[in-house]
Amino acid sequence: MIDLHYWTTPNGHKITMFLEETGLAYKLVPVNLVKNEQFEPAFLEIAPNNKMPAIVDHNPVDCGKPISIFESGAILQYPAEKTGQLLPKDLRGRVEVNQWLFWQVAGLGPMPGQLIFFLRNAEKHPFGIERYTKETERLFGVLNKRLEGREWLAGDAYSIADIATYAWAAPYNLFGLSLDTYPALERWLEAVASRPATERAYAIAKEMNPQAPQPVRRAEREIARAAS
Ligand SMILES: N[C@@H](CCC(=O)N[C@@H](CS)C(=O)NCC(=O)O)C(=O)O
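A: This is the predicted complex of the input protein with glutathione.
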């Protein structure tokens, strides 16, 4: 059994998407960020950086004491390696998945995250908004180009790189972006969104926090395009 310390944000969705995809048994432990529960001493024991997600695996393969992990990229790699799912077994496939996983964790996560901070801040800092808008657009452009002519982000199959990246690409609308100039990205977003595991992951978020943003689906975009 895995305990998932979770709240309803993109970094949290990555792990529910993975667990729902693989069917691993897990228990949700809410870390309500609105109530600052990430600073609770018991959580800091598991996640000293006071950020969720974090997991505790009570059945590690070495049969030793439970293993706790923070940082979503490290979390995704751990059960993928443990179960052999959503991470290729061959050397070159793994390198490809891991480089896109790290690309997301280091770029298409922190940059739109900073953009949201500046957009929502009562004090307006045009330099901050411009800087992070440009960087977010650049990263979306890189992603769109990568997805041209390819079904999945890395390798031949759906992987933890797709999961991690989807969680941050799906809220494109919150970053003030439109998908009109990213057709490859739009196709891939819809392919990931329509996976039953993805739908379950976002339903879990909605149940825990009805305010949690939900992905905009193709049908809604088509209605909006027809109306404009
Ligand atoms: N690099 C971390 C980032 C995690 C992160 O930023 N989590 C946010 C929510 S999406 C959080 O817990 N914020 C609470 C805080 O900063 O106090 C990861 O990938 O897991």
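The radius of gyration is 18 Å. The chain has ten helices and four strands.
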